[in-house]
């Protein structure tokens, strides 16, 4: 804490040892006011108070004191002249009459001379939202105060302790899904196309991400804020931001038809996707730094930045999804079009569910002020965090399920109409094994060898005599939608 307006007040939720026991015994707020030797006048002092929010501000004021000039709450020569306090209380904060007696928790309110070093230990006996406020006797006095909150359970903040359980739950969910998906991958490893390899890497990365995130919070809780834990946390945040960005990039590619409609979404679309991904990565890292170092101004900027970039990224993805669905419908590739329709619905329903949870969460506190939402909401923040992570898992798992490896997944992905090179269109060359020219309704994609016959396939719809029907059994690729023939 320091002499700036933002730095003169610190508030946060703290669990008592009764609610969250641990190796540290009691939860405490430790204050150190160092001795100041530079330009200190004999009568210079700091006013310091430690209290639970509802014992003072929440019971007697409409808004937090951070919205007011702190000098109005300090007993000094001006407030003494106005009759708000007595001479013997000079240098302390002004508490309403009877507030000290009616308080449910201890209130420390004292005058600290700048020429003295003072250490204070405040024991938290009840879970609550605690504040430390300071004010100098003169605005030209630079000072700082060290505030160290030690929870009974360890070095994490009360608002962060839920992350241990949340990360563990996500590890179990991703591991269970990944095991099933990997079983199909190795079972059909000779019939894999490139996008399925990306999904494999993505699932592995998500498992590693949550293991590292769990290790990070465990280390912080055990060792506290040290140089080594800070370096490790930054490395984990970079990796986690990269994985999150990579997953959205894969989603953008899939929604633009990569691996299902085409092997090349085009240079412009690919560049735009990567630029959106880069911007998203930068915004995620900015948010991580602001939260880690409690930079309030940077936190506000990063929150707005993430909102704008994420919204833009999803609009870009949604536009690609709409165009891909239209192109599949125009080509009469009904089964693929239905798959993309289901993907569109699940993404939409997930977003709607997330916003519904947010509305319900904040509706609980509709009768309270914005200050009280912060004061009361910190204990339930883990619900929003877990729901958001789970809904993101649903989207990732759906894409992985739709594009899971099967015995005919490669044939399904590239089941396009034949044309010749003279048409001047981008074409795909895939070897066809066991092809019978008299039975064009059935073919198998086989492994490459010297005896394979080459056929050329394109995404252009054919009319008239050129039309060839390629029959792919939908149940071979998935049961997500009802079976339809692909024409």
TrEMBL record:
Domain of life: Eukaryota
InterPro entries membership: GOST_TM (IPR053937), GPR107/GPR108-like (IPR009637), PTM1-like_N (IPR053938)
Pfam families named among the record's database cross-references: GOST_TM, PTM1-like_N
One Gene Ontology CC term in the entry: cytosol
GO biological process: retrograde transport, endosome to Golgi
Broad class of the protein's primary localization: membrane
Topological relation to the membrane, as annotated: Multi-pass membrane protein
Swiss-Prot/TrEMBL keywords: Membrane, Signal, Transmembrane, Transmembrane helix
Boundaries of every PTM1-like N-terminal domain copy: 10-147
Location relative to the cell: Membrane
Residues that span the membrane, as ranges: 167-186, 198-219, 231-254, 275-293, 299-321, 342-366, 386-403
Residue stretches in coiled coil: none
Domain GOST seven transmembrane: 165-409
Protein family: Belongs to the LU7TM family.
Official protein name in the record: Uncharacterized protein
Record organism: Nadsonia fulvescens var. elongata DSM 6958
Phylogenetic classification of the source organism: Eukaryota, Fungi, Dikarya, Ascomycota, Saccharomycotina
């Amino acid at each position: 804490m320091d002499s700036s307006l933002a730095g003169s007040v610190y508030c946060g939720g703290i669990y008592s040892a009764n609610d969250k026991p641990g190796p540290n015994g009691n939860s405490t707020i430790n204050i150190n006011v160092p001795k100041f030797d530079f330009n200190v006048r004999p009568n210079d002092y700091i006013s310091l108070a430690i209290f639970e929010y509802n014992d003072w501000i929440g019971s007697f004021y409409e808004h937090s004191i951070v919205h007011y000039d702190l000098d109005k709450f300090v007993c000094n020569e001006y407030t003494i002249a106005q009759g708000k306090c007595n001479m013997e209380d000079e240098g302390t904060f002004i508490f309403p009459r009877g507030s000290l007696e009616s308080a449910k928790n201890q209130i420390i309110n004292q005058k600290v001379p700048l020429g003295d070093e003072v250490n204070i230990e405040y024991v938290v006996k009840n879970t609550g939202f605690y504040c430390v406020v300071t004010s100098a006797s003169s605005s030209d006095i630079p000072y700082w105060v060290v505030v160290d909150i030690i929870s009974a359970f360890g070095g994490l903040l009360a608002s962060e302790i839920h992350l241990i359980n949340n990360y563990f739950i996500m590890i179990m969910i991703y591991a269970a899904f990944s095991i099933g998906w990997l079983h199909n991958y190795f079972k059909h490893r000779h019939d894999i196309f490139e996008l399925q390899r990306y999904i494999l890497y993505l699932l592995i990365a998500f498992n590693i991400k949550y293991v590292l995130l769990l290790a990070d919070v465990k280390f912080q809780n055990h060792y506290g804020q040290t140089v080594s834990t800070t370096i490790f946390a930054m490395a984990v945040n970079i990796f986690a931001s990269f994985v999150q960005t990579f997953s959205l990039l894969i989603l953008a590619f899939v929604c633009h038809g990569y691996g299902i409609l085409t092997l090349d979404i085009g240079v412009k679309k690919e560049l735009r996707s990567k630029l959106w991904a880069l911007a998203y990565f930068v915004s995620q890292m900015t948010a991580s730094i602001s939260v880690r170092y409690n930079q309030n101004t940077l936190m506000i900027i990063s929150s707005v930045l993430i909102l704008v970039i994420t919204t833009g990224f999803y609009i870009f993805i949604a536009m690609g999804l709409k165009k891909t669905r239209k192109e599949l419908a125009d080509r009469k590739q009904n089964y693929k079009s239905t798959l993309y329709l289901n993907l569109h619905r699940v993404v939409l329903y997930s977003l709607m569910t997330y916003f519904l949870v947010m509305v319900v969460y904040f509706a609980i506190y509709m009768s309270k002020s914005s200050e009280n939402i912060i004061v009361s909401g910190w204990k339930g923040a883990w619900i929003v965090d877990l729901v958001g992570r789970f809904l993101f898992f649903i989207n990732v798992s759906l894409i992985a399920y739709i594009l899971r490896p099967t015995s005919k997944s490669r044939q399904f992905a590239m089941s396009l109409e034949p044309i010749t090179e003279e048409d001047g269109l981008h074409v795909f060359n895939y070897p066809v094994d066991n092809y019978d020219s008299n039975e064009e309704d059935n073919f198998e994609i086989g492994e490459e060898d010297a005896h394979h016959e080459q056929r050329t396939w394109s995404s252009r719809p054919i009319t008239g005599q050129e039309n060839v029907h390629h029959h792919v059994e939908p149940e071979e690729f998935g049961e997500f939608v009802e079976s339809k023939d692909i024409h």
